Structure formats: C-alpha cells, structure tokens
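FAQ

Q: What does a record look like?
A: Structure on top, sequence underneath. For example:
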C-alpha cells in the first residue's frame, strides 16, 4: 500500500469518482491511511469520531447493540464503502458501531476537509442531505427495535419517539392509532392494544378524551 499514492487510492473509491483532478488532489492531500486490526472498533455507537472512513481493503460490520449487549448486524462493508458521513452531516453521535472483521485498511478524512466537499449549509441540497440522514437514523432504530426488542419494548420505544416534551410532561398530541402503531412495530393490532391497555392499567400512560396520550411514568424499552 505504501507504493500507491493517496491520489491513486482516491481515484479507486467510487465516492470520489466524479471529482475533478484538482478536487481529488485536495482530498488526497487531506486523507491519512490507517490500519485496523481484526475485531477493532472503527467507530463506536453513541460517540463522535469527526471523520469519514473509507475502506480500501478488508471487511467491516456495521452493528448496533442493546443495553444487554445483544447485537444485530445492519450491513457488511467492503472495499470502496464508507462510514461516518451521517455524523459529519448532522453532527450527532454515530447511530451504530463499525468493527473490522479482518485486518482492514482505511483512508480517514477529517471533519473540516469533509465539510469543504459539502454544499453550503443554507442550501436546499444540504437540507435534503440532513433529511436523508434523519431517515437513515430512523431506519437504523427501526431495524434495531425489530431485531432486539419484544413487542412491549417496541411499543414503548415508539411512544417515546412520538412524544413531545411540554414543561416536563411527555405527551403525544392526537389520537394514537393502534393499527398504525402495529404496522410500525411489526405486530398485530390486537397485541398492540393489549400492551397499551396494560400500560394504562399500570398508570404508565393516560389516554385523554381527545385521544392524546400522556406518559405519566418513566417508560423504558430495555
């Protein structure tokens, strides 16, 4: 790998295939090479690494885990794939971890250098990028819920995601459709209704006359 220039490496990455020579050279001057050992974390869920990681060779897994340590694999990355862009675009922590399956070589591009490749933050294109990142994060959470949580946990997480905070009170404005929630959590309407009824009987939630739902006690999805 030492005999190949950064520019040659950049040209091999599909992400940069449309760059002009000057743009590619600018990126090549900014990236650094890094090698990860088998089993080493490249990015960690819930943290910020402030960099874009581009696989040159090797293989890595994108995975998420619950508080019990149970994991679900979201994707397997190969040469030319990249990670970290979501966090760089919306400045939020990583929604999943990435771990090297085998010895893996990467190009690492820092936040400032990556930002120069983006459209202006006030532009429509940047707004669309942030919207896409938000959808991807929601998709990751949905996959995690379906794989790691039981129906009770998925209903709890969905209620928390839907709730708004008003002066310390979490409330879901408007009627909560059991049918729609069933489609979100991947369960039957009857099962969702039983979970909601149980939460109401335990005093965890309260359904108001207008159909809005108030979360009265700490609702967990562990």
């Amino acid at each position: 790998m030492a005999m190949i220039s950064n520019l040659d490496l950049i040209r091999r990455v599909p992400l940069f295939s449309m760059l002009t020579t000057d743009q590619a050279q600018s990126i090549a001057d900014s990236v650094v090479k890094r090698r990860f050992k088998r089993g080493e974390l490249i990015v960690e869920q819930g943290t910020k690494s402030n960099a874009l990681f581009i696989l040159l060779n090797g293989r890595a897994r994108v995975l998420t885990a619950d508080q019990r340590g149970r994991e679900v694999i979201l994707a397997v990355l190969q040469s030319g794939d990249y990670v970290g862009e979501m966090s760089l675009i919306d400045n939020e922590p990583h929604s999943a971890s990435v771990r090297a399956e085998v010895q893996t070589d990467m190009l690492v591009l820092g936040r400032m250098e990556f930002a120069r490749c983006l459209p202006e933050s006030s532009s429509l294109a940047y707004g669309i990028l942030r919207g896409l990142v938000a959808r991807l994060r929601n998709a990751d959470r949905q996959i995690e819920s379906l794989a790691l949580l039981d129906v009770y946990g998925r209903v709890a997480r969905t209620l928390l995601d839907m709730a708004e905070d008003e002066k310390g009170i979490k409330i879901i404005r408007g009627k909560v459709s059991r049918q729609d929630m069933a489609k979100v959590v991947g369960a039957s309407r009857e099962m969702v209704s039983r979970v909601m009824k149980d939460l109401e009987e335990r005093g965890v939630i309260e359904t108001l006359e207008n159909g809005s739902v108030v979360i009265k006690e700490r609702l967990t999805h562990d």
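Q: Is there anything notable about this one?
A: The longest strand covers residues 51-57.
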